[in-house]
Structures are given as C-alpha cells and as structure tokens.
Fold these 3 entries.
Entry 1:
Amino acid sequence: MTDDQLNQLSAAVGHLLQRDNATVTAAESCTGGWICKVLTDIAGSSAWFHRGFVTYSNDAKQQLIGVSGESLAQWGAVSEQVVHEMAQGALRAADAQFAVAVSGIAGPDGGSAEKPTGTVWFGFATADGRALTRRQLFAGDREAVRRQATAYALQTLHDEFLENKLDTV
C-alpha cells in the first residue's frame, strides 16, 4: 500500500470515527508508531485520536498498558493473548471507544520455526466489549512487513468495526 493509499484509508477511518463521535487508540510494537503517525497525518484527527502507545519492549507493554508478565512469559510478545491484553489495556488507558494493537516480527532477525519473520498478531477491542484477534504472515523486508501491518490494522478497524459495526466477539 502506498503512502497515498494509507492516507486515504486513515481519512476514511477518521471520517467514520467522527461520524460516530468516537475515538481510537493504538498500542504498537513492531509498527513502532506508524499507525499513530498515519492517523495523525489527517487534519482534524485531534477530534478522534487523543493518544497512542508505542510499547516496543515487554516492560513498556506491562507498564503502559497493563499486559501481564505471566502472558508475556508463557506466550511471548507476538501472540494472540498478548495483543488481546494490549488492545484491552490501551482502550482503558486512553479511555477510547476503539483500540488497535499490533505485535509482530518485522525482521530481518527474530523469527523462528513457530513464529517466522513476517508474523504479526492484531488485537482489536471496543468500549462496548467487542474484541477480535487475528494473525497474519506478511512477506518482504522490514519496511514492507511494517507497512502491510499498518494497512491491515487500519483496514480491519474500518471494515469490521466502523463500517460494518461487527456485532460478534
């Protein structure tokens, strides 16, 4: 996805948030703030984006958004359990209506047979109790994985929560 396409997607997300008088937050690990960056590239984003969290280290995940040390030890930072906790913790910490969480292995190092480079987990949570987790495997170099993860997070937020208003957990 190009920068222009990311900008258009961010604007569409912002439009739907503004329509619903809602806010969003992001808890990011492998994307390093890219989701927050593209959201705040949109003029007027302060109406629907108040804060985000770059929780690159396990300590940051625990201290800033309340991920449990037990989950990190048992499942690892790149796991369904941890992104679920990241999304829930960011939602509470930001007092937002929607949260997106991302944790993955962008590479070029850090992958394993179980979690190869390009593995990214996504967590979504809403103030009304809905939640969703998904795992994707992206190809390419570090920048390509991070760009694809950013696009996937925003597209899923748009399609599953804002546009279609997903009603199931």
Entry 2:
Amino acid sequence: MEVTPVLEPCGESDHPDCGIRDVLDRIGDKWSVLVIVELASGVRRFRELQRAIEGISQRMLTLTVRRLERDGLVKRTVYATVPAQVTYQLTERGSSLTLLVKQLADWSLEHKDSIGASRELYDLQNPDQQIR
C-alpha cells in the first residue's frame, strides 16, 4: 500500500511561511523549468537555449536566465571575444533540481491522459463553468 507523505501547510500560526511560494514563483513558471531541463544536458550558449525552447522570446529568455542566475541556479560566463560569447550552465544548486524536475515530468507524462479526461468530463458536467 502506498503511503502518502504528510505535508505541513505553510502560513498557519503554528507553521509560518516556509518559503515555498518564493521558490515556486521562480521554478514554477514554465520557462524556468524548460531552461533547467535544457541546461541539465550541459553548457549552452544563449542562441542554443533559444532554439531549443520553442516559443520563448529573446526577452523572456533573458529575464528567465537572469532570475535563475540571481537565485544561484545558473552560472553565466562571458568570454572576451568579438562578439562576446556567453554561456550558461547549472550550478550545483541548479543541478540538484534536475531530479525533482524529472520526477515532475515523469508524473506529468503518467497522468496527462487521465487529467485530460477529467477536464473533458468536468466541462461536460459544468458547461456554464468553462475554465481554460
């Protein structure tokens, strides 16, 4: 029988904010997760990241890697070439996230179809409450 772990709720009087909101704000957005997944394979140049992450704009990629760098998850290296070459790689802290991201990806793949079916059923049963 599978045992469900006990999670302590954040923000209650006996359990103050545990910081999860701040962390989820960073790694919970789709672009950060996709950058982490891409960098898990090794060092990448900016354009390589942009080509690998479908749909991300140059501005959004710039903001995303800056935020990840600020949080100590990504290391940015600038080489003194003309034009300047910039590479990105996961720090040790960033690398420690890859197992969690892989678990989340695996869970998503495992449950994607059943979640889609649940959404369809909900929409059929609640036509006036369409959520997108």
Entry 3:
Amino acid sequence: MIEEGRALFLQIAESVEDSIIDGSLPEESQAPSTNELAAFFRINPATAAKGVNMLADKGVLHKRRGIGMFVAPGARDLLLAERRTAFADRFVDPLLVEARKLGLGADDLSRLILDRAATADAVLASSDRRRAEASVTTEGTSR
C-alpha cells in the first residue's frame, strides 16, 4: 500500500483521510494511534506521528488529553470540499482546456460525460451480476 516516491507521512495522512471520507472512521470516533499506524504500515512511529499531526493542524483530528486523537466534527465535509477542489484543479480544468481546443462546448461535454457514465454503470452492473452468480455457484458446490 506504500507508494515509492511519495512521502510516507503524506500517505499515512491520506489513508486516515480516506477512512474518514468513506465513513469507516466516523466523526467523533477515535483515530488509530501513531503506534497502531506505525505497526500497520511497518514504519517509524515518528513518521506516523508527522502524518497524524498534519491532520490535527488541518483541523481534521483533535487531541483529547490522555485518551488520543479523535475525528473532529465537520472533518468529512472539510475533506470532501478539499478533495473536490483538488479534483477540479487536476482533472476538470485540463478537460475544459482540451475541450476548447477541440471545439466542444458545455453541452457537448455534458453529453460525452453522461454517455461514458452510462457505459461505465452498465459495465459495473454486469460485473456485479457475474460476481453474484459466481458466488451462488460456489456456495452451491461447497455444500
């Protein structure tokens, strides 16, 4: 899960952020300790602490003296807003620049995105059906 070339403490912070965003680490719940993170990722506890402290400085985590770090109220909304802005900067802005070069307007882009989303949804639904069918077949043969 650790990526080469990216600072470990940033990867730790992003992992905790992902857990907050997906709801597996809800607001007001206790965050993993630096020792738990260090053991899980097999890194130095000081590196894990740097990632956790970064989240605390950002207002995503807050410390309860003698107990540990907890997810701050509003942390999920804060992270979603931050990630949406980063998504727009990284993907939408370049998309708009390229669309202008190709003479595509907002309506053209909307249709293109909706068509691609429908195709992706159909592929995912088909994959989910195959997985469910395989699961039923496996359960039937294992009895």
